From TrEMBL:
Residues making up the signal peptide according to the UniProt record: none
Protein name stated in the entry: 5NT1B nucleotidase
Stored Pfam families: 5-nucleotidase (PF06189)
Gene name tied to this protein: Nt5c1b
GO molecular function: 5'-nucleotidase activity; magnesium ion binding; nucleotide binding
Top-level lineage group: Eukaryota
A single BP term in Gene Ontology: adenosine metabolic process
A single cellular component GO annotation: cytosol
Length: 208
């Protein structure tokens, strides 16, 4: 288990104001209002949901799965889908292939995981790195893969595995990955993950 070295007792007041002082990289809570407050303060945060069935997770590698839009990236694409439709969104992505997406609320957390990974890469331990990251997105590879990967590259970030599902359910893929936590902005993806045994965390950001 983890040894808790720091904590704060706030007498019922919100702890969010202390998070930046504590240099918090990620705030997880079952309290969605506190999570929303943290997001608005520019802190990576998500509301935790437990899985509905037991799953055996790796005890030698931390596996973290992220959705793309409104989690790692901004809500730019979702806005276009809502306002102009899916076909126009595909066209927009292709026209802007070389323009990086704006960052979303958990970009900094992925960046912090990447810094830890690079310490193992420097020791020639890439294949045995105890941290593995996954992008699990409903985007189509044909219309969006290039822009997504170029965006990550422009940030100086790597993702170990990228899965473009073209709208297919994420639950079955997550069963195969068995992440210790999965971040998404859409509650139906959270619920689908829960049903199949994945611990999921909802990121309240953007238009979702």
């Amino acid at each position: 288990g983890l040894t808790i070295e720091r904590f704060c007792m706030t007498g019922g007041e919100s702890p969010i104001g202390y998070l930046t002082v504590y240099l918090v990289n990620l705030y997880l809570s079952a309290d969605s209002e506190k999570v929303q407050e943290a997001i608005e303060a520019g802190i990576a945060a998500a509301t935790m949901f437990t899985a509905n069935r037991d799953v055996v997770y790796s005890d030698t590698q931390l596996r973290v799965a992220f959705d793309g839009d409104e989690v790692l990236f901004s809500d730019e694409s979702e806005q276009i889908v809502k306002e102009q439709g899916l076909d126009r969104s595909f066209e927009h992505e292709q026209l802007n292939e070389n323009k990086p997406l704006a960052q979303g609320p958990l970009k900094g957390f992925l960046e912090d995981l990447g810094k830890l990974q690079k310490k193992f890469y420097a020791k020639n331990e890439r294949l045995n790195c105890p941290i593995r990251t996954f992008l699990v997105t409903a985007r189509s590879a044909a219309s969006s893969e290039a822009r997504v990967l170029k965006t990550l590259r422009s940030w100086g970030l790597e993702i170990d595995e990228a899965l473009f599902l073209e709208g297919a359910p994420k639950g079955p893929i997550l069963v195969k990955i068995r992440p210790h936590i999965f971040f998404d902005d859409q509650m139906f993806h959270i619920e689908g993950a829960q049903e199949l045994g994945t611990i999921a965390a909802h990121v309240p950001y953007g238009i979702a």
